[in-house]
Every structure is written in C-alpha cells, then in structure tokens.
Amino acid sequence: MTSPATQHNEKSALRYRPSWLAWLISLFSGVGGLIVKIVLLSLLNAMVGWAIIVLFTQDRVVWALGTLAVLAIFDFVYLRPNKLLPAKFILPGSVLLVAYLIIPIFFTINTAFQKYSTGHVLTKAEAITTNIEQNVVQGERFFLMTPARDESGALVLVLVDDATGQTYLGRASGLEEIDPSTVAVDEFGDLVPPAGLEALVGDDLFGADAELAAFEIPMEGGGVIKTEGISGAYESEPGLAYDAARDVMIAADTGVEYADNGRGSFVSPEGEELVVGWREYVGFENFTAVITNPLVRAPFLRAFVWTIAFAASTVLISFAIGLFLAKLLDKPKFRLKKMYRSLLVVPYAVPGFLSLLVFKGLLNDDYGLINKLLPFDAPWLFDPWWARISVILVSVWLTTPYFLLVCMGALQAIPTELVEAARVDGAGRWQVFRKVTLPLLLVVVTPLLIASFAYNFNNFNNVFLLTGGGPSSDDQSVAGATDILISYTYKLAFEAGKGQDYGLASAISIYIFFIVAAMSASGFLRSKALENMK
Amino acid sequence: MKKQVAKLVAGLTVAAFAALSLPTTSGAAASLRIWADADRKASVEKVAGAWGKKNGVTVTVVQKDFGKIRDDLKTVDLATAPDVIVGAHDWVGELAANGSVIPLTVSKSSSAKIPSYALDAFSYANAKGNKVLYGAPVALENVGLVVNTKVATVPSSFDDMVSQALAFQKKASGNFGLVIPGGDAYHNYPLFSGLCGYVFGKDAKGNLNPADVGVGNAKLLANADAVDSWNKSGLLSSKVDYGIAKNAFLAGKAAFWVTGPWEKDTIDKSGLKVKIVQMPKNKCDSVPFLGVQGFMVTKFAKSHGVESQARDLVGSYMLSEGAQTQLSSENGRAPANTDAAAKIDDVLLKQFAAAGKGGVPMPNIPEMSSVWGDLGTAWTNVFKGADATPAKTAFRTAGKNIKAKIG
User: Fold this and answer.
1) A256 CB within 8 Å of a chain B CB
2) What confidence category does residue A53 fall into, taking pLDDT thresholds of 50, 70 and 90?
3) Nearest-by-CA chain A residue for B374
C-alpha cells in the first residue's frame, strides 16, 4: 500500500532530502508510526496510571479523578485514526496551559479569600488537636520507662521515678507500686521488666508507635501518665479541652472559653487567641485590608509611580538602544558583524541572577569597579535617586539584547522595495526611518513592548537582588526608594506581621494583575490602531 | 475496532505492570528521615546513625539548604516529609504556630546539663503563657570580636577599641580599623546592645512580648550620638559588606573583625594570630545575639508511625553529653550540653563560646520577621558617610516602622 510513495521517494531521493523534522513526522505514519504511537501511549498510560494510584493512596481523590479524565481524553483523541486531527495538535499544549497557568490562577484567587498566614495553615480539626497538645500541663514527676506486654498482650509500662527511684507498673487501669528489686537494668541502661512481662523490642516496638503515643495511665486526682518516646513517661494534666457540641475550647483550670471567631482562631472573651489557628474563608477581608492598611496606603502612590517609571524607561531605553544597534548591524558591509552580534547578546545569555549580583559588587560606592573607573564617585546604591538610576541601568543592560534580537529580525522582514521607493521619492535617511521603517517595525514590535512592560512591571528579581528595594526613601516609610509594587508586596506579605501572609499576598497580586491588565489592554488597543495604518 | 481494543489493552497492561511495581513500604521496619543542611549532614549521619544502630532504626539524612528546611516543611508531601529536622531556634515560634513541630517533654536529668536560655530559646509560650519545649538544643553560636593581635591588643575598654581601630586605620591607606558587615542587624547587634538597644522586651512570665519593641527605646536614643561619631570618624561604613570585611581582615588590613565560628576554619588557615573576645562594654554590655541549633520532631513523625522513636532520638539521646561532644567535634560549634562544652579543646571555639557570655538569644517569635529589614536599613543609613541619617532619626524611624508592621 505504500509502494507508490516509495517509488516516488526513490526517484526524487537525489534531488530532495527530507529535513529531520519531516523525517520525524514521517515516523508517525504507516505501520512504524502505529508502533511508535502505541509505545508512546502505553508509556503515557503507565506513568500517568502510576501517578493516579499514588494520588489515590494519598487521599487526593479530586486530583486523581481529574488526572484520570485527562488521560482518558488523551487515549480517546490519539487512538482514533485520521480523526480529530486538530485536537491531536492542540491537546498537549492545552493541558500544559491548564496545568501551569489556569490552576495556579485558580489557587491564587482561592487563597486571596482565605485567612492563610503564619499560625493559620492547618485545618480546624488539626488545629484543635494541636492546641490541646501544646497546652498539656506537665506535672512534677518524670519516669524512665520500658514498654512491655503481659500474657494477655495488654500494654504495661515499667516505670522508675526519675527523682526518687521508686518503681511502678503502669496499666491502662492505673499505677501500681512494685518492689524495686524486681526491675533490673541491662548494659544499655534500659529497664528489664519483672517476670511475666515481655519487653517490647524491634518490630513489636515499632508497630506499637501509635498505641504508645495514645497510652495513658489514669491517676488519682484526674491526672494521667503519658509516654515520651520509648524510654520516658511523665505526669500530666490536660490544659485545654474541646467541647464539640458548642465548638469552644475550655481551659481546664480557669474555665475560660475560647470561641471560634469565624476568622480561623479560638479567642477568649478577653481577646486572647490560642497559638494555633486554621485556614478559613474570610470573604473580601484581604482585599479590604490592602486598602485600609496605612502601611499600604501611604507609600502606594509613590511606589506605583516609580513602578511605571521603572518599567516604561527600562522598555523604552532598551528598545531604543536595541533598535540603534540592530540598525548598525543591519548594514551589509559591517565588518566582524557576527562577532559583534554574539558579544551584544552575551548579557542575555548570562543568567540574570548572576549579572545582578555582579552589578551589585561593581556598583559599590567605595570598593566597586565602576566608581574606580569614573572620575567622580557616585553613590550608586546609597542615594535614592542614584539607586533608581542604577536599577534602570542594570535592567536596560539585561533587556537590550532581547530588543536587539527582536529588531534584527523585524528589520529583515521590512520589504526593501518600500525603503527604496521612499528613497527614490526623495526622502532622506531620517525621513525613511521615521515614516517607513519605524511604523512598520512598531506593528511587529508593539505587542512585544507591551509584554516587556508587563514583565518589568513585576520584575521582582532586578529590584530585590540589586538594592533589596532600598535605600530608604526620604519619607522614611517601610517602602524603599526602589521598591516596585511587587517587591513592596513581598515585604508586606513576608517580612511584616508574623512573617508569612499568603492570603494578603494573593489579594495584592490580584490587584496588580488588574493594574497590569488595564495598562496592557490600552496598549494593545493602540497597537491595533497601528495595524490599521498598514 | 479490534485494532483499537488491542491498543487499549497494550496501554493498560503496561499501566498494570507499573502499578504492581509500586513500592509497598507500609509494613517495613522503622526508618527515620532527618533533614539537615550541608554543614551538618555528615555529623548528624554519624551521631544519629549510632543511635539508629542501637535501636534498630534506619536513619536517612536528607540534605537541604538551611533556610529550605523551614520553608519546605510547609509544602512537603507526607510521603517524603521528615520526621526530625535540624534547625535554628528562631524558627520555633513560626513552626509551633503552624503546628509543624510537636512539643517535647524531657526529664530533669537530661535537661539539667543544658543551659536554661538554650531550652528557653527552643520554647514558645502556649495560651497560658507557659513555655513549651519544641526542640533539643545541641549547638550554640554567636559572633565575637576577632582581634588581630599582630597589629592590635585585646582592647581594655570600648574607647580603647575605638582609638586602636582609628589609629590602625590612619597608618596606611587601605587599612580598616573595625570591620562589621554593613546594614546587617545580626552582626551589628553587639554595637546595638552596647548602646542599650534591645529588640523585644519580656512580659511578666518571661516570654518575649511583641508589643514591647526596644528598637528606638529612649535609652538607646540618648546614646545614639556615639553612632554618628563613629560614622564621622570613618570607624564604620555601611559600604563594607561581608566579603570586603572578611578579605580585609584575612589580608591583615583590619585590626578587629566581628564574625562567628563559621569562619573558624578560615581564620585557622589564614595563619593570623588572633584572640576572640566579647566586644568591650559600652554604655551597656555589648553582648551578641545567640543562635542555638537543635533537633525538632515534626508532626509527620506521627503519621509515619515513628513518633516514639523520634522523641527518643531528639528528647533523650541528642541532649546527652556523648552525642553533643561528637556533634561539636564534627561540626565546629560549641555544644549546648555543659559537660560536653567543658571538654572543648579547640582554642578558637572556646574563645567564641566565651565571647557569647550573657548574650541574647535571637527572638524566636514570628514577629521577628518584621524586625530584620528595618533594623538593617537603620544600620545602613547611619554609616553612609557624608549623607548619613542621624542615628537618633534612623532608630526612631526603624522602631516606628517595626511597630506598624507588627500591627
């Protein structure tokens, strides 16, 4: 069935050699292709099937079912020969889009409506047990302990009082004093239980972990003896109890009740909060907190203006320099063109983190290379205005190669006839550039300029690694002079209050999304206008 | 149609095989997973391994970046979660509030040999204001004043240190008197405490009180003019970063350096003659921040069914003299156990330990994260040279901002 094609191939083999890409595509047709397809699909099935089982064992049912559904779609689409062709191409990309873009966005929005911060990470049920555990009142006595079992298999603790040396047997029914001479001590210092009891060792001991942790010996007066590890026990009394019917935590000694405040904490009437809270939905609280918080309001406008100035100047200056260099390199007779081109792309090839840290050293006031080379000393990182200049300069250094590459490509795409026609009509170089080249270039480049603006609007790394947002600004507020909105957000959400506030951070990032979206949308509307000009 | 079924079968068969090869670990003997950083991994492996051998428990030490131990604990899956972590005491408040680590009870005989401040450092107050212990302190570290005894003598007073430093600085260009990493609240703490500054005060029960912020307290502000004079005379500059400070001292171009035992090997190798002391008393004692490292049992140990084993390793074995002596010799930090500490024979380590006398454990309440940035900024601003902020303004601002951030 493939003979006509083969014949054709043989004939044209001398003239036409398929590229590797075409060869790769051809792998997926015919019998060979079928085998490749089945092998790949089987591997996918195997790996994803394994993942689904793991998810099920970890009780992540929703995730497991979701993954199963995606796998079913894959199998369905790829197993139907010569059908659903567009879907075959779109599916992998769409799945990745959902996995890495849509789901994180969903999580961010979900988090923004929660009280989720240091002290509010557990579920309510976990928080209740953790609070009870943290408030156990430790008694005076501590015992050395060896766990053992009697003939009936019940757990018995052999105990020696740490202070008095008195020996006991502890059962679930109570404590019993025994003659110290019946308990020996072995070479490791562990207790050897009296006759009739078998010490728990090895796998028996490991298997009894949960039983040991939960084991309590009741004592007269309401206290209990609890185990501590495998060789200790201590007297204790509960400090807090949970009343499920009324949903309150009650202090054992004072009777003070800590009630659920609806915001992920148990609070007493006096306003005292239990240490451990839980994640709780709190509606728009995080969103309003951003607006009402004086720490946010005061420096917001300044940080906002600086963010726009930083992003806009980075993009425009980089674009201008990139375009200029691209124009230079565009000249056909330029010598050593390839070498220059490679050198100019170097800042783009070096990881940004590295460049930023190197620049931080170079820009040091007293010991940095830049000030040593300059005839004057500039306080690059220590003066608010100089620091702003430094941040922009370094960002330009990192961004320019991108625009150089983009412009080199875009300039190639401009038809030479248009330029020649303009020249024939008597336009000067500058006029040609302004009236022909630049508008045509902008049609292509404007979306990239907008994207780059949006990227720099949230360019956390450049600011944080170079200046850390500092130096402190003249108004002495928490936001530093070079803090852009996102780095300031970081400071608010992760370096204020009790450390981490994921809910607040998510709420602010949603605000920032709307700001960037609004600005990008207006930019794209303008670029549409440019396109119409064409 | 038959073809399709065949394909489906092929795929599902492989899936079934994969499922069969799933690890079935649930019934295996006890194994304990510990997270430790690169510096401590080897020593932890050795010491915890010895305990594991005795108890028949397999101990696995997983290497993590130090800060990642705390961060990853929040997001880790139960399957790969650690049962025990090695961390710093100043994480305790956050970890306890998040319920990530579980309370320990230790016998009086094991805790008797551990200094009470080290135990307090690993404790966090519960609802009643009682201290609850969350870790076993094993190692102590603090900064000291490292004196290059070839060019300076151990200062007899704070003023003597300043005048010696300035004299050496003037001797040759490129000389530094006293080097402290600029804008760093931790390394500058001896200066801060010497001027009677503190970070958090304590409440009636002796617990740190986040409402009492001592950055910018009246006493400190009254003494703050001295800071301006150090800036004016060029004694200190915020342009000196950690690397510049270290290189200058190692090249013999600095008389005094404020650093900690993590640089002990570097100092040893440099061949410089040094003596490490506590910075001399200024208006108040110039004590450093104390850092305490220790072992903590995570909430995951329960689900893994190794809670009792983990408690035994941490709350009993790790507090013992033998374990701490071995950890210390492998790891180059002073042990917390006083019997083990008495046995240190490393001269520099002993001097570093002595330099920490009366030191203040870094606050372990989560509110501390509001402090580092602003206090550091204040130090940057006061030593900026010509256009420095007056220290009074800088510390008052820092205090005000920190209070606002704690909220």
Assistant:
1) no
2) confident
3) A478
- Give yes or no for B62 touching A (CB within 8 A): no
Residue B225 has pLDDT above 60, yes or no: yes
pLDDT over 70 (residue B13):
no
ipTM: 0.85
B205 shares contact with chain A (CB less than 8 Å): no
C-alpha to C-alpha distance for A455 and A425, rounded to whole angstroms: 41
Which chain A positions have a beta carbon within 8 Å of B369's beta carbon? 494-499
Distances (CA, A) of A357 to A144, A317, B165, B222: 55, 22, 30, 38
In this complex, is the C-beta atom of A49 within 8 Å of any C-beta atom belonging to chain B?
Answer: yes
Residue contact A276–B98, C-beta within 8 A: yes
B80 to chain A: closest CA residue: A58
Which residues neighbour A494 within 8 Å (Cβ) at sequence distance 6 or greater? A500, A501, A505, B369
Burial class (CB in 10 A: 0-12, 13-18, 19+), B98: buried
β-pairing, B144-148 vs B334-335, is unpaired
CA–CA separation, A147 and B73 (whole Å): 31
> Which A-chain residues 462-521 have CB contacts (< 8 A) with chain B?
470-472, 476-478, 480, 491, 494-500
Residues of B in contact with A201 (CB under 8 A): 56
**How far is the C-alpha of A76 from the C-alpha of A268, rounded, in Å?**
58
Any CB–CB contact under 8 A between A265 and chain B? no
* DSSP character string of A421-473: HHHHTT--HHHHIIIIIHHHHHHHHHHHHHHHHHHHHT-HHHHHHHTTT-SBP
Of residues B214, B157, B158, B147, the one with CA closest to residue B185 = B214
| CA gap A119, A139 in Å, rounded | 27
Beta strand pairing call for A280-281 and A114-115: antiparallel
- Taking an 8 Å cut-off on Cβ atoms, the answer to whether B309 and A121 are in contact is no
Q: How confident is the model at residue A4 (pLDDT cuts 50, 70, 90)?
A: very low
Burial class (CB in 10 A: 0-12, 13-18, 19+), A397: middle
CA atoms B364, B318, B354, B147: torsion sign: negative
pLDDT at B115 > cutoff 60: yes
State the average pLDDT over residues B291-308.
Answer: 93
Query: CB count, 10 Å around CB of A493?
Result: 21
Contact of A229 with chain B, judged by CB distance below 8 Å, is answered with yes
Bridge partners (DSSP) of residue A54 are: none
- Answer yes or no: pTM beyond 0.90: no
Torsion angle, alpha carbons of A491, A494, A496, A499, to 10: -160
Q: Helical H runs in B182-296?
A: 189-194, 218-223, 225-232, 242-250, 264-270
- Among A366-375, A459-468, B201-210, the least confident range: A366-375
Averaged pLDDT for residues B285-302: 95
Instruction: Give the model confidence (pLDDT) of B16-34 as tens digits.
Output: 565 555 554 444 568 899 9
Interface list for A 340-369 with B (CB within 8 A)? 364-367
Say if the Cβ atoms of A251 and B393 lie within 8 Å: no
Crossing angle of helices B2-20 and A61-79, rounded to 10°: 150
The tens digit of pLDDT for each residue in A77-116 reads 887 766 777 888 889 899 999 989 999 999 999 999 999 9
> CB-based contact (8 Å) between B366 and chain A?
yes
